[in-house]
Amino acid sequence: MRKTALLASFAAAALAATAFTGVAAADTTSTARNGKCENLEFCLYYNSTLGGSVSDFDRKVSNFAPYVFKGPGAGRGQSVKNNAASACNRMGRYTARIYYNSGYKGPHDDIPPKACRNLSVTYNDNASWKWVLS
Question: What residue range is the signal peptide (predicted)?
Fold first, then answer.
C-alpha cells in the first residue's frame, strides 16, 4: 500500500512538472538584449540577409556606441554602431526607423511591422533607431 501511494505521488509530481513546462513554453514575452530576435523586438544583424550575430532591442536607442552584437556568429562582441547590414522588425504595429546619425537624425531606413530586410541607406552606417507610427 505504501509503495502504491509513493508511486502515485511521483506520478502526480511528474504530471505537474510537465504542465508547468508547457505553460512556460507557451510564454510569448521577449527579453531584450539576450542575443535572440523575439516577438515585439527590433533586431539588427551583423551581416546581410539576417546573417551573423544579432543585437535585439525593445526600446529606442539614441546612440548605438555602447551596444554590441550578442548573438552567436560573425560579429559577436563588435559594436552595433556602423556595423549592421540587415534588420528585422518583430513589432506588429510600428515601423522601425534606423538613422544614419545619433540622436535620430539624418537619412534613414524604415523596416515595416513584421518585416525583415537588408539595410540600404544605413548599411554599416547606423547610429540610432526608434519606433514610428506606420
Answer: 1-25
Which three cell numbers mark 40? 515585439
Could you tell me the CATH number of the domain that includes residue 85? 2.60.20.10
In a domain, 18, yes or no: no
CA distances from 17 to 5, 25, 32, 53 (A): 18, 12, 27, 34
Tell me: the pLDDT tens digits for 86-131? Answer: 999 999 999 999 999 999 999 999 999 999 999 999 999 999 999 9
Q: Does the CA dihedral 43-48-50-53 come out positive or negative?
A: negative
For the stretch 48-80, pLDDT in tens is 999 999 999 999 999 999 999 999 999 999 999
| 8 Å CB contact between 80 and 55 | yes
Distance CA 104, CA 113 (A): 19
For residue 5, pLDDT over 60 is answered with no
- Residues 6 or more apart whose Cβ sits within 8 Å of residue 92: 40, 113, 114
Q: Which domain holds residue 46?
A: 42-133
Q: How many domains does the chain have?
A: 1
